[in-house]
Each structure stands twice: as C-alpha cells, then as structure tokens.
Protein 1
Amino acid sequence: MTLNQLRAFALVARLGSLRAAAAALNISEPAVSSSLAALRLDLGDALFVRAGAGIALTAGGRALADHAQEIVGLADQVRWEVSHAEESTANLRVVATAGFAEHAAGRLLDAFTRRVPGHFGGIDVVVESADDVGSLLQDHAYDVALGARPPQGNQLEVVPFLRYQRVLVAAQEHPLTRQPPSLTALLGELWFSGPAGVEEFTAESSWLAATFLASALGVPEIVPLSSETDALAAVRDGEGIMLAFMHIVRAEVAARSLVVVPVPNTPIAGLWCASTLDHGRAPAAARTLQRFVTTAEATAAMLAPGGSRGVARRGSKVHVALWS
C-alpha cells in the first residue's frame, strides 16, 4: 500500500469515477486504474464495483475511504511542515476582531506563550473588522484569526472556542431601569460601543436587525468610542446605554452600579472562533494556537477578571514576545 495508491482511491471514492480522479491528479485514467489494482491486490478486496456511470464502494471500500483521506491529509501536512520548517522561528501573525482583542486577546496570548515558550519568534496582533478577516487569511496576510466567525468560511478551518453573552446595560439611575422599556424608548436613547461599532455578520448585528429593523422602527444611534472600556465609563456616568459582555460587567451588575435592561431576545448569545486556512495550509504555530484556545486553561485565562486588554483600535499592532 503506497501513498499514491491511497490518494487515487480517496479521490475515486469522493468523486465517484476513475476519470474524475485522473483529471484531479493530472494523470491518465489507466494510471489510476493501475494504482487501484495494486491496492486491491494488497488488501484482498475489490474496494468498489461499477455501478451505472460511476462506482459503488464495497464494505471494505467504505472502511478504507474513512481512513484514506485522513492519511493523505496527514502526509500533505507533514510535507508542508518540512518544506516550511524555517518559518518556525518567524512571528505568528494574528488578526483579531475588536471585542475579542480588547477583552480577551492579551490574557489568552499571555497564557499561550507560557504554555509553548520559545517555539517561534513572537506574536504580532492586529485588529480588523469581522467581515475582512476571512479574506485576509485567504490572502495569507495573517496566520490565524481570533474572535467573530469569518463570513467567508470556504477554504478555512473554523474552530469555535468560547460562547459569550451580550446584555444591554445602563446606570442604576437611568430611566430605562425603572420599567421594561418599549422599542421606541430604546431608539430614543444614545447607545455607545467600542471603536468597531456593531459589526456585520455578528450575533449582535443579527439581534439589532431582528429587534428593530423587523419592526420598521429604524436602528438606534450608536456612538463608537475609542474602546468598550470607555463606552462602559460613559454608561456608568448615565450618558447612555450599551451592549456589554456579561462576563465583563457581572460584578458591577451584582453590585447594582450597572443594571441589565430587559429587552426581547437578550442576552444575545455569540461565539468566538479560531480560524486558519484549511487542509494543513496554516503554519504549525497557528494550528498550535488554534488547539490551545479550546483548552480549559485558555478559557480560564480569557474569562479571568483584570489583566491586559490587548488592542482596541482597527489596524493597531501589538507584538507579544515569547518567554525564553
């Protein structure tokens, strides 16, 4: 059994014909047939039979198909890592969406560099909008994206790693806290946000559309400030309201310095993801970070109170030096 034989069989099983597999491999159909004949002889199974214009897998063929693509993919990944071994000392390029960058990126990357010290040069973190990160990954501008799920999911491996909730908060003395407000009353208030505002393709933008646009009332006036921390300060001063991360304001809500305003379909449930190029095309360091973010250690770091805020402005760049 050889890798070339498995690659040919994996393509035949997926595409349903020898001709399609030969075209994908850029070799002749007799060459594919010869590889499969050798594989059949080695395994003692027909693997597939002719069925109309295509093929039908035998029980043995189905068993092999479950593993053949995995083996081929692993081989391709090893080949890529060997050929790009010199890049292992290069900086890891991370693109993050604004909310994640401000509230979780610093603590996450601190934990990551303690866990895998000295494996590469360092980490550069840049903040970009949620609707851009997918294309930036595909253009090889960055190695891994953290935060909102990229809308361009094709050719990406997207790993969800943390669920969050957004709630609408106001200062204790704010009129909206005295009774459940109407949508019209909410529209009359000043809303604050971080510098990215409410980004497209996020759970927050979907909530705004479903809550306000569906009622033909328009959307609230949202004033972006330099950070969500500054937006919260304005809310505490009674200047307006904002959609805040529940885990960030939980202590203040418990102390009643901030109050959760009851609004339909809140809390808003969102999901942070780690995204890389698929099929092993991402650097090893990016995949290591992608695996790390799903661990209990990473979750504890991201949800811990205090700590570094990371970067908050679009296009800002922060370099995180690795521990030696």
Note: The longest strand covers residues 156-171.
Protein 2
Amino acid sequence: MSNNLKPFLARLAVGETLTDTESEAAFDIIMSGEATPAQIGALLMAMRLRGETVAEITGAVRAMRARMTAVAAPADAIDVCGTGGDAAGTLNVSTAVTFVVAGCEVPVAKHGNRALSSRTGGADVLTALGVNVDAPLERLPDILRAAHCAFLFAPRHHPSMRHAAGPRVELGTRTIFNLLGPLANPARVRRQLTGVFAPEWAAPMAETLGRLGSESVWIVHGQGLDELTVAGENQIVAWQDAGLRRFVVSPEDVGLPRAPIEAIRGGDAALNAATLRALLQGATGPYRDTVLLNAAAALVVAARAADLREGVALATRSIASGAALAALETLQRETTVH
C-alpha cells in the first residue's frame, strides 16, 4: 500500500477538482497497483458524486494510454465503439458497422470487450462468428492490413485496469472508468465514432479527445442508446477543426425510415451473430438501416464521405457488393492462422 493517493483523496473529499496533471498522477497510482481497494473506491465515488471534469478525464486517459499495450495502425484508421451502459439489449451495431466500413477499405481498429453491461458484447458476437479475439498481438497490424479491420480486445491491451476491477464490481455503479475505454484506443486512432450512454457526456468526451490530439470525432447518443438510431432524433457533438459542433440528425435526413428500438432487440451471442451475418448477406429491415446510419457517420468521420447521404450510399454498396461480408471472412481467416 502507498500513501501517495491520500492527498488527492483529501482534496476530493471537500469537493475540489484535480488538474489534468494531478488526475494523471492519481490514476497512475491506481493502475500501478499501489492503491488499496478502499482508496480506489473513495476516489471513484468522490468524482462521480461531484461530477467528473474534462481535466480529470483527460488525465485519467493519459495514465491509461501510458500503460496500454499499443498496436501500430495506419494514420487513417478509425474506431467505432460505444461506452455501453445503455441497458437496451440491442443487436450488435458497432461490430456490424466495423465490417461495413472495412468493406469501404477504411481501416477500422475496433476497441471492445465482452459483455459487461449488455447481454452480448463485441468480443462475444465475434467469437460466435468464428473470429479469434485472442489472436497474437504481434499479428494485429497484419490482420488490420489484410481485412481492413481488427479487434483490439480491451483486457489484453489494458492489463493495468485489473487493479480497479474489484472496486468497480463492488461499487456496482457507473464510474469514470465507463468513459475511459472508448478514449484509450490501443491503435491511437485520431478519428472516432463513439456512442455514449447519456447525452450530457458527449461534449466532455469530445473535448477530451480533442485535447489529446484527435482530428475528427463524433460522440453520439440516440434515444437512450449509445449509438445512432432510426427510432428518432440523434444528438451529436463533433470535434472538428479544433472546436466543438453540436447538431441533431434524424433518419429522414438521410432517407431512412423510422423504426422503434424494439425492432433491433438482440439476444445471446449466437442469435446476434446469426443476425449480423444475415445483414452482411443482404437482409433488410431496421437493423440494416441502423447499421447504415452509423456506418455513414463513421465514413464522414473518416473523411471518406462528404455527408451522411453519401455515407449511406457507400455503406449500402459495401453490403451489396459483398465487400462487408468479405471483410468478416478475411478477419475470420487471418485471426485463426497459426
């Protein structure tokens, strides 16, 4: 046990905030294994009750990035992921988007995990699709090059997070760590489409990524989901040209019909995987429309589409041509090569 965290706890206890440098130091203590479970729990709850600041999030991300196992990726690589925590139990959207965007030959370094707050996480559905999420780390750059996509399984890239795992489970509530995952992509991507579980966190997350050097970011929230939805209006905060921009997008804006969230309810990994494969094989309906909308946004962020309507057209072509399905099949093959 170290006493190094105690001065930070004393300040947080009286409602003070930490600078980004102080937050980085505090979280480095946690991720080095020097803090006790009680100290970790106290820090997380003090920040949660008062409300985490952009400076505190920025410092925590820096500490997390400093200790992660990084992966080399092309400069134009993009990540598509969400914070989780929306408790909606939908089909896997960002995983499907990965293959649609990869089918447009945009490299997707997808950061993800097994189900934590959802029923079926990205790692779960990929495993059901025959993808080896534990492929050797040294092969990931080659896999990304061959398939235009790769899955960066969070526990393998962020081993220092294990020191906070116990307190997080015991607290049983959202903490700053729920925000950090999407902000610490192991490929150090500078372009991201990231869904957030609550709209009030969109601007802080976008600003944090901007501070950390991102070029183009959309943080999105749709009708309670940590992704864009065709169920109604979507709130978006974008970081572009070194500033924040807020706007709203509806499915009608890009020529897609509305459908209730219930239309994309998911199930276990086998069901979600079968539905995702059917989508890539040409199945139509609300799930396809949802994936098209999110893929379109990713293509805009990646600077491959000028606007969402062009993005929808490119995403549609990726599926219709078989390119999206080919990305999945290549990922399956490349991750199982011995």
Note: Residues 140 and 150 are 7 Å apart (CA to CA).
